[in-house]
Amino acid sequence: MSRALEMARALYGAAFLLAPSRVLARLARSPLDRPAVTVARVLGVRYVLQAAILWARPAPRRQLAGAAVDAAHAASMCALARWSHRSAHRRLAARNARTAGLLAGAGAAQAAAGFRRCSAGITSGR
């Protein structure tokens, strides 16, 4: 599951990085302003970097840290979805919160499985 999760994270991040206007317009169902596009690019960089780090060194502690970053992102998007004055921003934030929450849950499950393997004495050969 580790490789599939990091590949999905990298592709999601690459979409935000390479075509933020198109991705945001599709997710929000309307074009968004320049600051939203800039934030999407930064988010894309974060997702790609996180995927690269976890792909290269998929240690349970790193996976858990990645899950915590995703959970913090989900929480911030929930706040934005609640208090934004623009409906497009609220819709986009809610969708982003769901995705970040799913990534956080998958990352936490992955970390837990890694910790179980470590405690059972099973190594991945890395």
Task: Give a structural overview.
This protein is mainly α. The protein has five helices and no strands. It has helices spanning 2-18, 20-28, 34-56, 60-83, 87-119. Helix 1 (2-18) crosses helix 2. The model has no long low-confidence stretch (mean pLDDT 91).
**Number of beta strands:** 0
Helix content: over 70%
Total count of helical runs of at least 4 residues: 5
CA distance, first residue to last residue: 16 Å
Strand content is: under 5%
Low-confidence stretches: none
Radius of gyration in whole Å, from Cα? 16 Å
Structural class: mainly alpha
Q: Name the overall outline.
A: elongated
Main β-sheet, in a few words?
Answer: none
Compressed to H and E, one letter per element, the order equals HHHHH
Mean pLDDT across the residues is 91
What is the element layout, followed by pairings?
Layout: H1 2-18, H2 20-28, H3 34-56, H4 60-83, H5 87-119
Quickly describe the structure.
With 126 residues, this protein is an all-alpha fold. The protein is 84% helix and 0% strand.
Main attributes?
elongated; 126 residues; mainly alpha
